[in-house]
Amino acid sequence: MIIHLKKDIGNKRASEIAEKINAFLIEEENQFVLISSSGQKTLDPSYEADVIESFVFDSDMQLAARSYKAATREVKIGEVTFGGSTGNTLMIAGPCSVESEDQIQESAELLKELNLTTLRGGCYKPRTSPYSFQGLGLEGLKLLVKMKEMYGLNVITEVRDATHIQEVIEYSDVIQIGAKAMYDQGILRACAKTQKPVLIKRGFGTTLQEFVQCAEFVLSGGNPNVILCERGLRTFETKTRFTLDLCGVAYLKEYTNCPIVLDPSHAMGYAYGVPDLTRACVAMGVDGLLIEVHRNPKVALSDASQQLTHQEFKDLLKTLSPIAAAVNRQII
Ligand code: PEP
Ligand code: MN
Fold this sequence. Notes:
Layout: E1 2-5, H1 10-21, E2 24-28, E3 31-35, E4 51-55, E5 74-77, E6 80-83, E7 88-94, H2 101-113, E8 118-120, H3 138-151, E9 154-159, H4 165-171, E10 174-177, H5 185-192, E11 198-201, H6 208-220, E12 226-230, H7 246-255, E13 260-262, H8 264-268, H9 274-283, E14 288-292, H10 310-326, E15 330-331
Parallel strand pairs: 7-8, 7-14, 7-15, 8-9, 9-10, 10-11, 11-12, 12-13, 13-14
Antiparallel strand pairs: 1-3, 1-4, 2-3, 5-6
Helix pairs in contact: 2-3, 5-6, 9-10
The structure holds phosphoenolpyruvate and manganese (II) ion (MN).
């Protein structure tokens, strides 16, 4: 249950009620908002004078529900705004991993040349094998910040576990929570305490309800800037790396108010399929895309098979504008 309290009741009274009914207390648009479990359907009449309105839900998808906030949340990353009614489809692009200064600089230059704003690059890689490249860590974060300063780009990087969450919050413009890390409550709770945008990737065996509940952890802790990212599920199929759940995306668009980003690179796992899949993603009318691109994918230290070359990425980008326009959007 979500309860909007009267503006003038003050922090002390709002906290008192929150404690009594065991609810989260956040401030939203200058308003005290209480969130208790969806099991709560009524409020003790003794609080009536403190309350403006309340909302009842049938599951623990509450703050993220369109039935609570009909409009998609607008998210600001530096000067860039997407979500809301902007019609923007934000192209997030860059290599899987930050590997060296000259490598990430070539990516930054590519984005600048193409008038794009948001550079990705992993520094703490959640690899399946402990013997694979694990990322440059803090050194990588510093390189991303250097690119941000040199080229005026926003940067996004992933957090692997809660041990380095504060560094990622400090250095990155958007915090990416990876598919394997999305259940980590240390990460979710830390992300709730910042106002920086958080992009949560859906785990490859995660139901939509569980996925949205991860968003609820961040939202109920006071951070309204949550972005949901579909990046493919594990199915019986092995010819492609994962299976992109576009049905799930249709569900999320209909029932949630968080901006949605689609990641065809990780879903497909092979560069040959990424351009077609990206066009299908744009046609879904989503708020963003995440595409891996590398100056020389063959020698990439992670996800080598799925990264596009610079030329492939440029060719792809040219084809996206008319598709975006057909669904009343523009690629930014
Ligand atoms: C990535 O974005 O490089 C990544 C590891 O993604 P995921 O968490 O979706 O596997
Ligand atoms: Mn990757």
